[in-house]
Amino acid sequence: MKGKVKWVDGALMVAESGSGHALVMDGPEEHGGRNLGVRPMEMLLLGMGGCTQFDVVHILRKSRQDVRFCEVELSAERAETEPKVFTRIHVHCRVGGKGLTEKAVERAVRLSAEKYCSASIMLAKTAEITHDFELVELD
């Protein structure tokens, strides 16, 4: 896996993934940013959310569950002193589908957290990570 981050101006950066996708990151105004993009630490948190969401949907589909949507909401706390690592992260998964069972969703969330989500397993080295989920039945 590769990536490149180019400094543009102030705290503005353009990141390009090895797969050729680009995004803008920026810092807060008090650090020379113009609030034109997501903060780098927010990207890290969002990456973990994306990894979790991907795993949950993949696990449910693999077990032949009729999953139709999945949203991952994240809330995090950071250390007050440098390095300001994440110290706590809570992951709330909203999963919807037809005939989904609580047992299947709980299993998918647990497997993501404990076995498959590389991002959350890595962040768990500094942060206490908790998970919960909400099952939404669709017609």
**Overall strand count:** 6
Beta-strand portion reads: 35-45%
Number of continuous helical runs = 3
CATH superfamily of the largest domain: K homology (KH) domain
Fraction of helical residues = 25-40%
Look at the structure and give the mean pLDDT. Answer: 96
Look at the helices and sheets and give the structural class: alpha+beta
Query: Which parts are unreliable, with pLDDT below 50 for 5 consecutive residues or more?
Result: none
For the biggest β-sheet, the strand order reads 1-2-3
Explain what you see.
- The protein is of the alpha+beta class.
- The protein folds into 2 domains: 1-38, N-terminal domain of TfIIb; 40-137, 2-Layer Sandwich (GMP Synthetase, Chain A, domain 3), CATH 3.30.300.
- The protein is built from 3 helices and 6 strands; from the N terminus they run βββαββααβ.
- Strands 1-2-3 form a 3-stranded antiparallel sheet, with no helix packed on it. Strands 4-5-6 form a 3-stranded mixed sheet, with helices on one face.
- 25% of the residues are buried.
- The model has no long low-confidence stretch (mean pLDDT 96).
